[in-house]
């Protein structure tokens, strides 16, 4: 074992030992950013970067499992990403499909898709549906896979769903205007029935949400990590939890 690895392991155990599990966030959202830049820095291809990023997901969920996290939302593909050239998009979708299938096959996670499924190719839609079906009975961490996801798209879809739902009930526009509130809109989000994220982590050094969970993250804490996603380590994860636990959450301020 290299000295650097030994020191890292000791430090990670020290951070973990001081972590108060009562202060661990129950829902963590993760913006998995930096795959392409990591690959470029390593002299690899974009596809290799995405593959390395996909392989990191199971590690993250293992760390979450050890620290009592209950819900994890992983942003794998934005609606903006769907405009990428086919030569780049097709391999990326294949990697995402493989990652989702691996999550379902693991047997520990309950997979749920968040995003506009109609925007995705039929094969990707099938993989997402099968993963949800095959894991719906599992009593483990709920893993939201955000594929074809955009925060504005989600809110637009929620409003559309709300209008269609009440049109079938014969609700007039005047009646609907009287009852529309935050809770009613929340019932039509992709994450309906789930707690909002307590903590949102973004890797790669970028300090913006880029539309991630716009509605749900109104009171979330944010943690921006300099490291690219494929290089994200357990100690980086533990630092995020430690930072979260040290904050005093003041809702509405």
Automatic annotation (TrEMBL):
GO molecular function terms listed in the Swiss-Prot or TrEMBL record: ditrans,polycis-polyprenyl diphosphate synthase [(2E,6E)-farnesyl diphosphate specific] activity; magnesium ion binding; Z-farnesyl diphosphate synthase activity
Enzyme class: transferase
Active-site residues annotated for this sequence: 33, 81 (proton acceptor)
Xref: PROSITE patterns: UPP_SYNTHASE (PS01066)
Protein family membership: Belongs to the UPP synthase family. Z-FPP synthase subfamily.
GO biological process, one term: polyprenol biosynthetic process
Keyword Transmembrane: no
Enzyme Commission number(s) of this protein: 2.5.1.-
Residues reported in the UniProt entry to bind Mg(2+): 33, 221
Keywords carried by this UniProt record: Magnesium, Metal-binding, Transferase
Subunit structure: Homodimer.
GO CC aspect terms: plasma membrane
Protein name: Isoprenyl transferase
Annotated residues for binding of substrate: 34-38, 50, 78-80, 84, 202, 208-210
Role this protein plays: Catalyzes the condensation of isopentenyl diphosphate (IPP) with allylic pyrophosphates generating different type of terpenoids.
InterPro entries: UPP_synth-like, UPP_synth-like_CS, UPP_synth-like_sf
Organism this protein belongs to: Streptomyces violaceusniger
Pfam families: Prenyltransf
The protein's required cofactors: Mg(2+)
Co-factor binding details: Binds 2 magnesium ions per subunit.
């Amino acid at each position: 074992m290299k000295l650097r690895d030994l020191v890292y392991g000791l430090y990670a155990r020290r951070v973990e030992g001081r972590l108060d599990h009562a202060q661990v966030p129950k829902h963590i959202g993760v913006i998995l950013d930096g795959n392409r830049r990591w690959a470029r820095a390593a002299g690899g291809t974009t596809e290799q970067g995405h593959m390395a990023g996909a392989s990191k997901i199971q590690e993250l969920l293992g760390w979450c499992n050890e620290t009592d996290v209950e819900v994890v939302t992983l942003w794998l593909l934005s609606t903006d990403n769907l405009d990428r050239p086919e030569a780049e998009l097709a391999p990326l979708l294949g990697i995402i499909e493989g990652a989702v299938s691996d999550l379902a096959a693991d047997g520990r996670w309950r997979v749920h898709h968040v995003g506009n499924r109609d925007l995705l190719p039929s094969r990707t839609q099938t993989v997402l549906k099968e993963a949800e079906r095959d894991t719906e009975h599992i009593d483990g961490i709920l893993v939201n896979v955000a594929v074809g996801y955009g925060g504005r798209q989600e809110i637009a879809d929620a409003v559309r769903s709300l209008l269609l739902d009440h049109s079938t009930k014969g609700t007039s526009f005047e009646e609907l205007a009287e009852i529309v509130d935050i809770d009613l809109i929340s019932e039509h989000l992709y994450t309906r029935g789930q707690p909002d994220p307590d903590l949102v982590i973004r890797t790669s050094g970028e300090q913006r949400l880029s539309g991630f969970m716009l509605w749900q993250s109104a009171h979330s804490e944010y943690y921006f990590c300099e490291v690219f996603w494929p290089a994200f380590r357990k100690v980086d994860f533990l630092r995020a939890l430690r930072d979260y636990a040290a904050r005093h959450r003041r809702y509405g301020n």
